[in-house]
Protein 1
Amino acid sequence: MKTFTFSFFSFLLLSVTLIFSACKKDNQAKANPDEIPYPECDDDVTIDDAIIMRFEYTNFEGQEPTVTISPDKTDARVKYDSAQYTPTREGNKMVIRIPNIKLSDRDHNYIAKCVTIEEFDATRPASDRWFEQTEFKNQREFAETKIATMLCLDVSSSLGEDREKVKQNAIDFAEQIFTNTNNESYVGLVLFADEVITYPFTNNLTDIEAAINS
């Protein structure tokens, strides 16, 4: 049985405040099974930004391989459909797929800047029991979530001084969606004024700004 950790090094999509997590480093006397690996991201991402998911992988002879997520060792901000998955053999590779992973809490959504995958091996020296497998480093794949958001705005003159503030907040929100996700994320609009006007989904911020300010 092998224990692995996914480390999602992330930033907030809709907030400027990070929620930090940290853990003591390994020492020569005893390996720390909850150690957090260092990120491979460029930018300003640090170990304090880590969101951890841990799972166990088994592949005993004569039995079907299994992957089981460890909920008690996984960050509550990691959302997944099921705790158990079945790896598949593709050629000479065993492929582990854990689809539909989401990083969020009640207040925020997170975007993964990079993913680090390490294996824990209790037979290795105490200072080096967490290590990154070359096979994962070279073959891992990670896809960003595609987002489609419909904004419903009251832009009528009855808002008074708040009208321009509401419009700018909507534009800022759309900009965050386009900036922090891939180019397959979209925003649509429903504007309530003297009449209701609907604008189709677009991934062009200029279109959103023009529609809101029209």
Protein 2
Amino acid sequence: MRRAHAVQSLTAVQCEYSLWTRDPEQNGVLATCEELGIGLIAFTPLGAGFLTGNAVGRAHPRHEADERLTPHDEGATT
């Protein structure tokens, strides 16, 4: 994120962030966004409906969404 921002100013970054998934706080993404003035857009802020109580038949929404859409960037550097 720092390298990309140095080449072209980033306005926002989107990543999974909710009460269920706090990864941006733990992997440094949130702190880096704050430091560089980059907005953070939460992907599935309500846990794909799970946190609303309206998810039917899902054990954990993250597994389904991650495998269908994009690989999780665990271990990504900020």
Protein 3
Amino acid sequence: MQQTTFVDRYALLWTTLWGFVSWYIGEKPVRIFQRYWDYTTAFAEIFSFIFLLKTLFAPWKNITDVKKKSGFDLSQWGQRVVLNITSRVVGMIVRMIALITGVVIEVLLLAGFVFLSVAWFAYPALAVIAVTFLTRSLLS
């Protein structure tokens, strides 16, 4: 009769536990970070932060007025200046709102990632503490 060793008897248990621990500590946190990075790059592409900053003071929808006649007319010059400045201010306001919205979304993504990461690694310790507390409460 062949005698089984401790390792042979519990090989499946140890393999399963090792697989779970390597998944919990190694694979899943990497996936969490990859998902965070995917969302971050997607929103950065959607909001085009660099483009918004480069065109911050550009006219809204490129609405401008240029001089049509030769000579100087104070009334037409004033109208052109007011239209061009108004178009640039409107463009700046819309782009600032888009920039602020994009930054807020990126910060919320970062906060969610940090919260999920901390919760993911704290959960086993919290589960052990909860079981210990419940066991002590039931026994006393």
Protein 4
Amino acid sequence: MRISKTFIKIFLTLFLVILISNITTLIFGGWNFYLGGVLLLFIIASVWMFLRKTNPEAAKYTLLITGGILVAILLVFAVFFTLSFFSSSTKTYSYDIGGKIDTNNSYIYPLDRLSNSSVQNTTNITYRNITSYLVYFTVPAEYSTGKVNVSFSVFENLPYGSMISIRGKNSTNWSYIDKLGYVSLGTRNVSVWKTVSVSFNASELFVENNVYAFAIESSQLMDAKTKLNYVSLDWINVSESKN
């Protein structure tokens, strides 16, 4: 099949546009693999058209080899994006309360509502005591849809009926969605840390500065009749999923 002069003119014009676009984005920033890939395809097509005119047999093999390379590249990208999608569909943030990082820069605030870091002698578990009924923490907001699961570990020595809730901020003002996570049965098992979990829909949480804001509310600290005036917290995990 003969290649018309009109086609060649259009091809060369597009080739120059792509070439100039690549050079411009390289100089001023913004270059990406898509532009580079299009330029590469135009270069390959140019070589193929030249060989087709001068050496048709070589052009045939060039086309086959190029097609094989492109298929291999597409397969590699397909595998990469598939693995990337599944590996990043869930993001978990783990806060070791009372640990080394938390000691230097507390995950929970304000500091005047927390004790210093402590270590449980029998287990070597690091923790802090929450000394006010309401404290706060934030986590990066990864997804705007899906689920946000918040779990935490609390020391099982609270008076009967004590309740701990996780509150998720849902507006610009001081407005929160309450999720009751723990109600003490008064067992006062001094050797057990209790893991508690609550779940939010990401769509019902407010995102500010790319973070979700939460509060931990401990109801028994509001009761002057109880002698206990703190809640011991070991860790907080926040898991965000797309679905």
